[in-house]
Protein backbone atom coordinates (compact mmCIF):
# COMPACT_ATOMS: atom_id res chain seq x y z
CA UNK A 1 0.00 0.00 0.00
CA UNK A 2 1.30 3.43 -0.96
CA UNK A 3 1.96 5.83 1.99
CA UNK A 4 -0.35 8.84 2.39
CA UNK A 5 0.97 11.88 0.53
CA UNK A 6 -1.33 14.92 0.94
CA UNK A 7 0.26 16.86 -1.93
CA UNK A 8 -0.20 14.06 -4.46
CA UNK A 9 -3.62 13.15 -3.00
CA UNK A 10 -4.93 16.68 -3.55
CA UNK A 11 -2.98 17.05 -6.80
CA UNK A 12 -4.79 14.16 -8.41
CA UNK A 13 -7.99 16.23 -8.30
CA UNK A 14 -6.40 18.50 -10.92
CA UNK A 15 -8.04 16.77 -13.94
CA UNK A 16 -11.42 17.32 -12.23
CA UNK A 17 -10.92 20.91 -11.13
CA UNK A 18 -9.35 22.06 -14.41
CA UNK A 19 -12.68 21.58 -16.20
CA UNK A 20 -14.18 24.47 -14.21
CA UNK A 21 -12.11 27.30 -15.76
CA UNK A 22 -12.47 25.65 -19.16
CA UNK A 23 -16.25 25.70 -18.82
CA UNK A 24 -16.45 29.24 -17.44
CA UNK A 25 -14.14 30.67 -20.11
CA UNK A 26 -16.07 28.92 -22.87
CA UNK A 27 -19.35 30.23 -21.48
CA UNK A 28 -18.10 33.82 -21.15
CA UNK A 29 -16.63 33.74 -24.67
CA UNK A 30 -19.92 32.58 -26.17
CA UNK A 31 -21.91 35.17 -24.21
CA UNK A 32 -19.48 37.93 -25.25
CA UNK A 33 -19.74 36.80 -28.87
CA UNK A 34 -23.55 37.01 -28.72
CA UNK A 35 -23.43 40.42 -27.01
CA UNK A 36 -20.98 41.74 -29.63
CA UNK A 37 -23.15 40.59 -32.53
CA UNK A 38 -26.45 41.68 -30.97
CA UNK A 39 -25.31 44.88 -29.26
CA UNK A 40 -28.70 46.34 -28.36
CA UNK A 41 -30.58 43.14 -27.62
CA UNK A 42 -28.28 41.56 -25.04
CA UNK A 43 -26.87 44.41 -22.95
CA UNK A 44 -27.97 42.54 -19.83
CA UNK A 45 -25.35 39.83 -20.54
CA UNK A 46 -22.54 42.10 -19.30
CA UNK A 47 -22.92 41.00 -15.67
CA UNK A 48 -23.04 37.30 -16.59
CA UNK A 49 -19.92 37.70 -18.74
CA UNK A 50 -17.95 39.41 -15.97
CA UNK A 51 -19.08 36.80 -13.44
CA UNK A 52 -18.10 33.91 -15.71
CA UNK A 53 -14.65 35.42 -16.35
CA UNK A 54 -14.10 36.00 -12.62
CA UNK A 55 -15.13 32.43 -11.77
CA UNK A 56 -12.83 31.19 -14.53
CA UNK A 57 -9.92 33.17 -13.08
CA UNK A 58 -10.54 31.95 -9.52
CA UNK A 59 -11.09 28.30 -10.46
CA UNK A 60 -8.12 28.52 -12.81
CA UNK A 61 -5.93 29.68 -9.93
CA UNK A 62 -7.12 26.74 -7.82
CA UNK A 63 -6.50 24.33 -10.72
CA UNK A 64 -2.99 25.74 -11.21
CA UNK A 65 -2.14 25.29 -7.52
CA UNK A 66 -3.51 21.74 -7.48
CA UNK A 67 -1.71 21.00 -10.75
CA UNK A 68 1.57 22.18 -9.20
CA UNK A 69 0.97 19.74 -6.34
CA UNK A 70 0.34 16.95 -8.86
CA UNK A 71 3.64 17.69 -10.63
CA UNK A 72 5.49 16.71 -7.45
CA UNK A 73 4.52 13.10 -8.23
CA UNK A 74 7.14 13.14 -10.98
CA UNK A 75 7.21 11.07 -14.15
CA UNK A 76 6.60 14.00 -16.50
CA UNK A 77 8.91 15.37 -19.19
CA UNK A 78 10.35 18.57 -17.71
CA UNK A 79 10.14 20.84 -20.76
CA UNK A 80 6.53 19.97 -21.56
CA UNK A 81 5.54 20.30 -17.91
CA UNK A 82 7.16 23.75 -17.63
CA UNK A 83 5.39 25.00 -20.75
CA UNK A 84 2.07 23.64 -19.49
CA UNK A 85 2.48 25.29 -16.08
CA UNK A 86 3.57 28.71 -17.35
CA UNK A 87 0.81 28.82 -19.93
CA UNK A 88 -1.71 27.90 -17.22
CA UNK A 89 -0.40 30.81 -15.11
CA UNK A 90 -0.78 33.06 -18.16
CA UNK A 91 -4.43 32.01 -18.51
CA UNK A 92 -5.11 32.86 -14.86
CA UNK A 93 -3.39 36.23 -15.19
CA UNK A 94 -5.11 37.20 -18.44
CA UNK A 95 -8.48 36.06 -17.05
CA UNK A 96 -8.10 38.41 -14.07
CA UNK A 97 -6.99 41.21 -16.43
CA UNK A 98 -9.99 40.60 -18.70
CA UNK A 99 -12.35 40.69 -15.72
CA UNK A 100 -10.81 43.95 -14.49
CA UNK A 101 -11.13 45.57 -17.92
CA UNK A 102 -14.78 44.54 -18.18
CA UNK A 103 -15.50 45.61 -14.61
CA UNK A 104 -13.70 48.93 -14.24
CA UNK A 105 -13.01 50.28 -17.73
CA UNK A 106 -16.28 51.03 -19.41
CA UNK A 107 -14.55 52.44 -22.51
CA UNK A 108 -13.35 48.88 -23.22
CA UNK A 109 -15.54 47.95 -26.22
CA UNK A 110 -17.21 44.60 -26.74
CA UNK A 111 -15.17 44.11 -29.88
CA UNK A 112 -11.91 44.79 -28.05
CA UNK A 113 -12.98 42.47 -25.24
CA UNK A 114 -13.78 39.76 -27.79
CA UNK A 115 -10.31 40.01 -29.34
CA UNK A 116 -8.70 39.83 -25.90
CA UNK A 117 -10.91 36.88 -24.91
CA UNK A 118 -10.03 35.12 -28.18
CA UNK A 119 -6.36 35.33 -27.18
CA UNK A 120 -7.23 33.76 -23.81
CA UNK A 121 -9.10 30.96 -25.58
CA UNK A 122 -6.08 30.26 -27.79
CA UNK A 123 -3.96 29.99 -24.64
CA UNK A 124 -6.58 27.67 -23.20
CA UNK A 125 -6.52 25.34 -26.21
CA UNK A 126 -2.71 25.22 -26.32
CA UNK A 127 -2.44 24.61 -22.58
CA UNK A 128 -5.08 21.91 -22.68
CA UNK A 129 -3.28 20.21 -25.54
CA UNK A 130 -0.01 20.16 -23.60
CA UNK A 131 -1.84 18.83 -20.55
CA UNK A 132 -3.41 16.09 -22.63
CA UNK A 133 0.00 15.13 -23.99
CA UNK A 134 1.39 14.90 -20.46
CA UNK A 135 -1.50 12.70 -19.35
CA UNK A 136 -2.16 10.52 -22.38
CA UNK A 137 0.77 10.99 -24.75
CA UNK A 138 1.05 13.07 -27.90
CA UNK A 139 -0.78 10.50 -30.06
CA UNK A 140 -3.88 10.19 -27.84
CA UNK A 141 -6.26 12.39 -29.85
CA UNK A 142 -5.45 10.79 -33.20
CA UNK A 143 -4.97 7.21 -32.02
CA UNK A 144 -8.25 6.05 -33.61
CA UNK A 145 -8.43 8.69 -36.35
CA UNK A 146 -8.55 7.79 -40.07
CA UNK A 147 -5.17 6.95 -41.60
CA UNK A 148 -5.07 10.23 -43.52
CA UNK A 149 -5.53 12.25 -40.33
CA UNK A 150 -2.89 10.19 -38.55
CA UNK A 151 -0.34 10.80 -41.29
CA UNK A 152 -1.10 14.53 -41.28
CA UNK A 153 -0.88 15.15 -37.54
CA UNK A 154 1.11 12.28 -36.07
CA UNK A 155 4.45 13.21 -34.55
CA UNK A 156 5.48 9.59 -34.20
CA UNK A 157 7.35 7.59 -36.77
CA UNK A 158 5.45 6.39 -39.82
CA UNK A 159 3.18 3.41 -39.33
CA UNK A 160 5.20 0.23 -39.21
CA UNK A 161 4.65 -1.96 -42.24
CA UNK A 162 5.02 -5.66 -41.53
CA UNK A 163 7.12 -7.43 -44.20
CA UNK A 164 5.25 -9.91 -46.36
CA UNK A 165 7.94 -12.50 -45.83
CA UNK A 166 7.58 -13.69 -42.20
CA UNK A 167 11.29 -14.50 -42.03
CA UNK A 168 12.06 -10.79 -42.49
CA UNK A 169 9.95 -9.73 -39.51
CA UNK A 170 11.99 -8.15 -36.70
CA UNK A 171 10.24 -9.43 -33.59
CA UNK A 172 10.66 -6.32 -31.42
CA UNK A 173 10.04 -3.73 -34.15
CA UNK A 174 7.04 -5.39 -35.79
CA UNK A 175 5.39 -7.26 -32.89
CA UNK A 176 6.47 -6.21 -29.40
CA UNK A 177 6.84 -2.47 -29.99
CA UNK A 178 3.29 -2.09 -31.39
CA UNK A 179 1.96 -3.86 -28.27
CA UNK A 180 3.88 -1.48 -26.01
CA UNK A 181 2.80 1.49 -28.12
CA UNK A 182 -0.90 0.64 -27.85
CA UNK A 183 -0.95 -0.29 -24.19
CA UNK A 184 2.03 1.37 -22.44
CA UNK A 185 3.26 4.46 -24.30
CA UNK A 186 0.54 6.78 -22.97
CA UNK A 187 2.10 6.63 -19.48
CA UNK A 188 5.69 5.65 -20.24
CA UNK A 189 6.95 8.04 -22.89
CA UNK A 190 9.54 10.79 -23.20
CA UNK A 191 7.04 13.39 -21.98
CA UNK A 192 5.45 11.37 -19.21
CA UNK A 193 7.83 8.93 -17.53
CA UNK A 194 5.57 7.28 -14.97
CA UNK A 195 7.78 5.33 -12.61
CA UNK A 196 10.72 7.02 -14.38
CA UNK A 197 10.17 4.60 -17.25
CA UNK A 198 10.22 5.53 -20.94
CA UNK A 199 9.37 2.61 -23.22
CA UNK A 200 9.35 4.63 -26.43
CA UNK A 201 13.10 4.30 -26.90
CA UNK A 202 15.40 1.32 -26.95
CA UNK A 203 17.39 2.88 -24.13
CA UNK A 204 14.28 3.11 -21.96
CA UNK A 205 13.36 -0.53 -22.57
CA UNK A 206 16.87 -1.96 -22.33
CA UNK A 207 17.00 -5.29 -20.54
CA UNK A 208 18.46 -5.38 -17.05
CA UNK A 209 19.41 -8.05 -14.57
CA UNK A 210 17.70 -9.43 -11.50
CA UNK A 211 14.09 -10.01 -10.49
CA UNK A 212 13.29 -6.27 -10.30
CA UNK A 213 14.54 -5.37 -13.77
CA UNK A 214 12.06 -4.11 -16.36
CA UNK A 215 13.09 -6.86 -18.76
CA UNK A 216 15.13 -9.88 -17.68
CA UNK A 217 16.20 -11.67 -20.89
CA UNK A 218 15.35 -15.35 -20.84
CA UNK A 219 13.08 -15.13 -17.79
CA UNK A 220 9.68 -13.49 -18.22
CA UNK A 221 8.66 -14.23 -14.63
CA UNK A 222 11.59 -12.19 -13.31
CA UNK A 223 10.78 -9.24 -15.57
CA UNK A 224 8.72 -6.54 -13.88
CA UNK A 225 7.16 -5.57 -17.24
CA UNK A 226 5.67 -9.04 -17.59
CA UNK A 227 4.74 -9.24 -13.90
CA UNK A 228 2.79 -5.99 -14.03
CA UNK A 229 0.66 -6.93 -17.03
CA UNK A 230 -0.24 -10.33 -15.53
CA UNK A 231 -1.28 -9.15 -12.05
CA UNK A 232 -4.87 -9.26 -10.89
CA UNK A 233 -6.57 -6.17 -12.39
CA UNK A 234 -7.64 -5.18 -8.85
CA UNK A 235 -4.00 -4.90 -7.80
CA UNK A 236 -2.79 -1.28 -7.58
CA UNK A 237 0.36 -2.21 -9.53
CA UNK A 238 -1.52 -3.79 -12.44
CA UNK A 239 -0.59 -2.29 -15.80
CA UNK A 240 -2.01 -0.55 -17.65
CA UNK A 241 -4.14 1.00 -14.88
CA UNK A 242 -6.47 2.61 -17.43
CA UNK A 243 -7.72 1.60 -20.84
CA UNK A 244 -7.67 -1.84 -22.40
CA UNK A 245 -5.28 -4.33 -20.79
CA UNK A 246 -3.03 -6.59 -22.84
CA UNK A 247 -4.95 -9.45 -24.42
CA UNK A 248 -4.04 -13.03 -23.60
CA UNK A 249 -2.38 -13.36 -27.00
CA UNK A 250 -0.33 -10.18 -26.51
CA UNK A 251 0.83 -11.40 -23.10
CA UNK A 252 1.90 -14.72 -24.61
CA UNK A 253 3.85 -12.95 -27.35
CA UNK A 254 5.55 -10.67 -24.82
CA UNK A 255 6.49 -13.70 -22.73
CA UNK A 256 7.85 -15.50 -25.80
CA UNK A 257 9.97 -12.49 -26.80
CA UNK A 258 11.49 -12.15 -23.33
CA UNK A 259 12.21 -15.87 -23.06
CA UNK A 260 13.80 -15.78 -26.52
CA UNK A 261 16.35 -13.34 -25.06
CA UNK A 262 14.51 -10.00 -25.47
CA UNK A 263 16.58 -9.13 -28.53
CA UNK A 264 15.87 -5.89 -30.37
CA UNK A 265 17.12 -7.14 -33.73
CA UNK A 266 16.19 -10.85 -33.81
CA UNK A 267 14.14 -11.83 -36.84
CA UNK A 268 11.42 -14.43 -37.05
CA UNK A 269 13.75 -16.62 -39.11
CA UNK A 270 16.14 -16.87 -36.13
CA UNK A 271 13.49 -17.48 -33.48
CA UNK A 272 12.03 -20.73 -32.17
CA UNK A 273 8.37 -20.95 -33.14
CA UNK A 274 5.58 -23.49 -32.92
CA UNK A 275 1.97 -23.93 -33.99
CA UNK A 276 0.64 -22.39 -30.77
CA UNK A 277 2.71 -19.25 -31.26
CA UNK A 278 1.73 -19.17 -34.92
CA UNK A 279 -1.94 -19.09 -33.93
CA UNK A 280 -1.32 -16.10 -31.63
CA UNK A 281 0.59 -14.19 -34.30
CA UNK A 282 -2.15 -14.86 -36.82
CA UNK A 283 -4.88 -13.69 -34.46
CA UNK A 284 -3.15 -10.60 -33.04
CA UNK A 285 -1.20 -9.36 -36.07
CA UNK A 286 -2.48 -11.38 -39.04
CA UNK A 287 1.05 -12.74 -39.42
CA UNK A 288 1.12 -16.21 -40.93
CA UNK A 289 4.38 -17.98 -40.07
CA UNK A 290 3.37 -21.29 -41.59
CA UNK A 291 5.93 -22.44 -44.19
CA UNK A 292 5.56 -20.59 -47.48
CA UNK A 293 6.44 -21.75 -50.96
CA UNK A 294 9.01 -19.78 -52.92
CA UNK A 295 6.39 -18.40 -55.30
CA UNK A 296 4.36 -17.09 -52.35
CA UNK A 297 7.29 -15.08 -51.01
CA UNK A 298 8.42 -13.49 -54.27
CA UNK A 299 6.40 -10.81 -56.04
CA UNK A 300 6.31 -10.72 -59.82
CA UNK A 301 4.25 -8.55 -62.16
CA UNK A 302 1.40 -10.27 -64.02
CA UNK A 303 1.70 -11.00 -67.72
CA UNK A 304 -0.47 -9.05 -70.13
CA UNK A 305 -3.50 -10.75 -71.75
CA UNK A 306 -1.75 -10.67 -75.14
CA UNK A 307 1.11 -12.75 -73.68
CA UNK A 308 -1.32 -15.49 -72.67
CA UNK A 309 -2.91 -15.29 -76.11
CA UNK A 310 0.49 -15.65 -77.81
CA UNK A 311 1.28 -18.77 -75.77
CA UNK A 312 -2.15 -20.23 -76.42
CA UNK A 313 -1.63 -19.92 -80.19
CA UNK A 314 1.55 -21.99 -79.82
CA UNK A 315 -0.29 -24.73 -77.97
CA UNK A 316 0.97 -23.71 -74.54
CA UNK A 317 -1.46 -23.80 -71.67
CA UNK A 318 -0.52 -21.21 -69.02
CA UNK A 319 -2.45 -19.99 -65.99
CA UNK A 320 -1.57 -18.09 -62.81
CA UNK A 321 -1.32 -20.22 -59.68
CA UNK A 322 -3.94 -18.09 -57.93
CA UNK A 323 -5.54 -14.68 -57.93
CA UNK A 324 -2.74 -13.43 -55.65
CA UNK A 325 0.18 -15.31 -57.24
CA UNK A 326 1.26 -14.30 -60.74
CA UNK A 327 3.66 -17.20 -61.28
CA UNK A 328 2.47 -19.65 -63.93
CA UNK A 329 1.54 -23.29 -64.16
CA UNK A 330 2.53 -24.28 -67.72
CA UNK A 331 1.99 -27.35 -69.90
CA UNK A 332 1.79 -27.99 -73.66
CA UNK A 333 -1.05 -29.50 -75.66
CA UNK A 334 0.90 -31.05 -78.52
CA UNK A 335 2.25 -34.63 -78.52
CA UNK A 336 5.80 -33.34 -78.74
CA UNK A 337 7.54 -30.10 -77.91
CA UNK A 338 8.35 -27.72 -80.77
CA UNK A 339 11.10 -25.15 -81.20
CA UNK A 340 8.49 -22.38 -81.06
CA UNK A 341 7.21 -23.67 -77.76
CA UNK A 342 10.75 -23.84 -76.38
CA UNK A 343 11.35 -20.22 -77.42
CA UNK A 344 8.12 -19.09 -75.76
CA UNK A 345 8.94 -20.98 -72.56
CA UNK A 346 12.34 -19.29 -72.43
CA UNK A 347 10.77 -15.90 -73.18
CA UNK A 348 8.48 -16.19 -70.16
CA UNK A 349 10.91 -18.18 -68.05
CA UNK A 350 10.82 -15.75 -65.11
CA UNK A 351 7.09 -16.34 -64.67
CA UNK A 352 7.09 -20.15 -64.93
CA UNK A 353 7.25 -22.01 -61.60
CA UNK A 354 5.32 -25.23 -62.43
CA UNK A 355 6.12 -26.95 -65.71
CA UNK A 356 4.61 -30.18 -67.01
CA UNK A 357 6.42 -31.64 -70.04
CA UNK A 358 5.59 -35.28 -69.42
CA UNK A 359 5.50 -37.49 -72.52
CA UNK A 360 6.52 -34.60 -74.83
CA UNK A 361 9.65 -36.18 -76.39
CA UNK A 362 11.97 -34.13 -74.20
CA UNK A 363 15.66 -34.88 -74.79
CA UNK A 364 18.88 -34.11 -72.94
CA UNK A 365 19.33 -31.10 -75.20
CA UNK A 366 15.95 -29.69 -74.16
CA UNK A 367 16.98 -29.98 -70.50
CA UNK A 368 19.76 -27.47 -71.11
CA UNK A 369 17.06 -24.90 -71.92
CA UNK A 370 14.77 -25.98 -69.09
CA UNK A 371 17.67 -25.45 -66.65
CA UNK A 372 17.44 -21.72 -67.48
CA UNK A 373 14.03 -21.45 -65.79
CA UNK A 374 15.39 -20.10 -62.51
CA UNK A 375 12.01 -19.87 -60.74
CA UNK A 376 10.96 -23.49 -61.29
CA UNK A 377 9.64 -25.18 -58.15
CA UNK A 378 7.89 -28.19 -59.70
CA UNK A 379 8.95 -30.00 -62.88
CA UNK A 380 7.42 -33.04 -64.53
CA UNK A 381 9.57 -34.57 -67.30
CA UNK A 382 8.38 -38.15 -66.96
CA UNK A 383 7.95 -40.50 -69.93
CA UNK A 384 10.74 -38.87 -71.91
CA UNK A 385 13.99 -40.26 -73.42
CA UNK A 386 16.37 -38.43 -71.05
CA UNK A 387 19.54 -39.74 -69.40
CA UNK A 388 21.73 -38.91 -66.42
CA UNK A 389 23.75 -36.55 -68.59
CA UNK A 390 20.73 -34.43 -69.46
CA UNK A 391 19.27 -34.54 -65.95
CA UNK A 392 22.57 -33.22 -64.64
CA UNK A 393 21.76 -29.80 -66.11
CA UNK A 394 18.94 -29.43 -63.57
CA UNK A 395 21.22 -29.22 -60.56
CA UNK A 396 21.42 -25.43 -61.06
CA UNK A 397 17.68 -24.96 -60.32
CA UNK A 398 17.96 -23.47 -56.80
CA UNK A 399 14.24 -23.44 -56.01
CA UNK A 400 13.15 -26.79 -57.45
CA UNK A 401 11.26 -28.80 -54.81
CA UNK A 402 9.43 -31.52 -56.77
CA UNK A 403 10.96 -33.40 -59.71
CA UNK A 404 9.12 -36.15 -61.54
CA UNK A 405 11.34 -38.31 -63.79
CA UNK A 406 9.51 -41.62 -63.74
CA UNK A 407 9.70 -43.78 -66.86
CA UNK A 408 12.90 -42.16 -68.14
CA UNK A 409 16.39 -43.46 -68.88
CA UNK A 410 18.12 -41.98 -65.80
CA UNK A 411 20.22 -44.27 -63.60
CA UNK A 412 22.11 -44.28 -60.30
CA UNK A 413 24.24 -41.25 -61.22
CA UNK A 414 21.16 -39.03 -61.03
CA UNK A 415 20.92 -39.78 -57.29
CA UNK A 416 24.40 -38.37 -56.73
CA UNK A 417 23.97 -34.95 -58.30
CA UNK A 418 20.34 -34.47 -57.25
CA UNK A 419 21.45 -35.03 -53.65
CA UNK A 420 23.42 -31.79 -53.95
CA UNK A 421 20.23 -29.75 -54.53
CA UNK A 422 19.35 -28.11 -51.21
CA UNK A 423 15.82 -27.13 -52.29
CA UNK A 424 14.72 -30.54 -53.63
CA UNK A 425 12.55 -32.56 -51.27
CA UNK A 426 10.68 -35.00 -53.54
CA UNK A 427 11.99 -36.92 -56.55
CA UNK A 428 9.90 -39.54 -58.37
CA UNK A 429 12.09 -42.15 -60.06
CA UNK A 430 10.02 -45.31 -60.42
CA UNK A 431 10.36 -47.25 -63.66
CA UNK A 432 13.93 -45.95 -64.21
CA UNK A 433 17.40 -47.49 -64.01
CA UNK A 434 17.93 -46.21 -60.46
CA UNK A 435 18.52 -49.07 -58.01
CA UNK A 436 17.15 -49.28 -54.51
CA UNK A 437 20.64 -49.98 -53.23
CA UNK A 438 21.87 -46.61 -54.50
CA UNK A 439 18.80 -44.92 -53.09
CA UNK A 440 19.38 -46.54 -49.70
CA UNK A 441 23.04 -45.49 -49.75
CA UNK A 442 22.20 -41.79 -50.02
CA UNK A 443 18.89 -41.76 -48.17
CA UNK A 444 20.43 -41.02 -44.75
CA UNK A 445 22.59 -38.23 -46.17
CA UNK A 446 19.78 -36.13 -47.58
CA UNK A 447 16.26 -34.97 -46.74
CA UNK A 448 15.01 -35.79 -50.24
CA UNK A 449 12.21 -38.31 -50.51
CA UNK A 450 13.08 -40.76 -53.30
CA UNK A 451 10.01 -42.47 -54.76
CA UNK A 452 11.00 -45.63 -56.63
What attributes does this structure have?
single chain, 452 residues, mainly alpha, 7-stranded mixed sheet
Written overview of the protein:
The chain is mostly helical. The chain folds into 3 domains: 6-136; 166-285, no CATH class; 305-451, Leucine-rich repeat, LRR (right-handed beta-alpha superhelix), CATH 3.80.10. It has 18 helices and 7 strands. A 7-stranded mixed beta sheet has the order 1-2-3-4-5-6-7. Helix 8 packs across helix 10 and helix 10 (248-259) crosses helix 11 (275-285). Mean pLDDT is 84; it is low at 155-159.
> Total number of helical segments?
18
CATH class of the largest domain: Alpha Beta
Structural class: mainly alpha
What is the strand content?
A: 5-15%
In angstroms, what separates the terminal alpha carbons? 74 Å
Q: Can you give the helix content as a percent range?
A: 40-55%
Under CATH, the homologous superfamily of the largest domain reads Ribonuclease Inhibitor
Structurally, the number of domains stands at: 3
* CATH architecture identity of the largest domain: Alpha-Beta Horseshoe
Average per-residue pLDDT, rounded, comes to 84
The CATH topology of the largest domain is Leucine-rich repeat, LRR (right-handed beta-alpha superhelix)
What is the number of beta strands? 7
Which H/E pattern describes the elements? Answer: HHHHHHHHHHHHHEEHEHEHEHEHE
The stretches of 5 or more residues where confidence is low (pLDDT under 50) are: 155-159
In short:
With 452 residues, the protein is mostly helical. It is 46% helix and 6% strand.
Amino acid sequence: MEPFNPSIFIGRFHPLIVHLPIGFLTLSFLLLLIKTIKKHEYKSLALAIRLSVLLAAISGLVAAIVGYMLSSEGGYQADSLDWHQWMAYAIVATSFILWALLKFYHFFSDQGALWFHSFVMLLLVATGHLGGNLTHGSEYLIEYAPDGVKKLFSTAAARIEIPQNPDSIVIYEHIIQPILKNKCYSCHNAEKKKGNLDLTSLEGALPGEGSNSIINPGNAFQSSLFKRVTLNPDNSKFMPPNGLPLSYGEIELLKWWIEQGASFDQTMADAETNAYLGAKLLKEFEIDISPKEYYELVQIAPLAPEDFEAMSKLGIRARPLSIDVNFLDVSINSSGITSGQVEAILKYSDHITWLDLSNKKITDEHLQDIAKLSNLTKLNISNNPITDEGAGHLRGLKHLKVLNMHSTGVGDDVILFLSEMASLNTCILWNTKVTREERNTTEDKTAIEWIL
